[in-house]
Design goal:
about 325 residues, mainly beta, ten-stranded antiparallel sheet, five-stranded antiparallel sheet, rod-shaped
């Protein structure tokens, strides 16, 4: 048995009684096993000379750089504990973790750190060529592309069909590139609706003011509730404030649903006539109207409300 494994008979020299034996003829090798084709007596002088090609394990000096054109690792590969981990038992690769939980596992080392940077830019700047990230689904060959070009981000499915595009105009769908069709805003929120009066709000006080809205692109859906605690000295026509100003386009008038409770009995808004709320272009108020029975309409005014009157308005309009 040899002290070190060798790859073939020529990597050693075998001498019997100082006579060099013919490699591959007088003997064969397999790893550390040396087999002689002839018999050897216990009294024979027998020795082996390695020719510098023994298969051994060496430790590279820790303070020296290692340069190689290729290499094969039969066990796990670990770089600096957790910088890089290749687990041969699972086939998983971890970056920033020594315990990868998926085929490729990236883990940041600090809050807010970018954990993946894909760069296909050329020249001195970024974004001057397309940067594609392709995701392939299983073995069926289906794929989707994330395309980064200039100041836009685009999602494409197999065949190159654009499903979603994000650029400086906003979000666009299904291959549309027109800026007018971009979804450039989404917002949910609350606001405090109030009564405004043409001749002054005076000392009017509220027992409730509740307003909510959702804004999608250039459309706002809202609902508002106002309850008067004390009418005070309010005077003139009354209006309800909106969360946003109506878009300033000629004849872009909007009608809203309207409800009023505990109005002054015998007046225009006591429930005997049709009522609605109206907003005109470039306005941030809704005007409550009631039909007057003579083919016209009257605005809600201070004479129609009292302590305890409450009202609601809601609808959708363009901004």
């Amino acid at each position: 048995t040899l002290d070190n494994a060798v790859g073939n008979p020529q990597e050693i020299e075998v001498f019997v009684n100082n006579v060099r034996q013919e490699p591959g003829v007088a003997y064969t090798v397999s790893g550390t096993a040396l087999t002689m084709t002839g018999s050897i007596a216990s009294t024979d002088d027998f020795y082996v000379v390695f020719q510098g090609k023994a298969i051994q394990t060496a430790t590279h000096p820790s303070d020296r750089a290692l340069t190689a054109t290729e290499g094969t690792f039969t066990g796990d590969l670990t770089v600096n504990t957790s910088n890089l981990k290749v687990d041969t038992s699972t086939g998983r690769v971890g970056v920033g973790t020594n315990s990868p939980q998926s085929l490729t596992h990236f883990k940041g080392t600090s809050s807010g750190e970018n954990i993946l940077h894909l760069d296909n830019s050329a020249g001195s700047g970024h974004g001057d060529t397309n940067n594609n990230v392709r995701v392939v689904s299983g073995n069926n060959g289906y794929w989707a592309n994330l395309v980064i070009a200039g100041q836009q981000l685009e999602f494409k499915v197999q065949g190159g069909t654009s499903m979603l595009r994000v650029d400086s105009d906003g979000v666009k769908f299904f291959g549309d590139t027109a800026s007018a069709n971009a979804l450039d805003d989404y917002e949910e929120g609350t606001y405090t609706p109030a009564i405004s009066a043409t001749d002054g709000i005076g000392t009017l006080t509220y027992s409730a003011q509740v307003g909510r809205y959702t804004k999608v692109g250039n459309r706002v859906s809202f609902n508002a509730y106002v309850s008067i605690a004390n009418k005070g000295t309010v005077a003139g026509s009354l209006r309800i404030t909106l969360p946003f100003t109506v878009k300033n386009v000629a004849n872009n008038n909007t009608v809203f649903s309207w409800w009023i409770n505990s109005a002054v009995s015998g007046q225009r808004f006591d429930g005997d006539t049709m009522q609605f709320c109206f907003a005109s272009p470039n306005s941030s108020i809704a005007l409550p109207y009631g039909s007057n029975g003579s083919g016209g309409v009257d605005l809600l005014n201070a004479a129609h409300v009292q302590n305890g009157t409450d009202m609601m308005v809601g609808g959708t309009y363009e901004v």
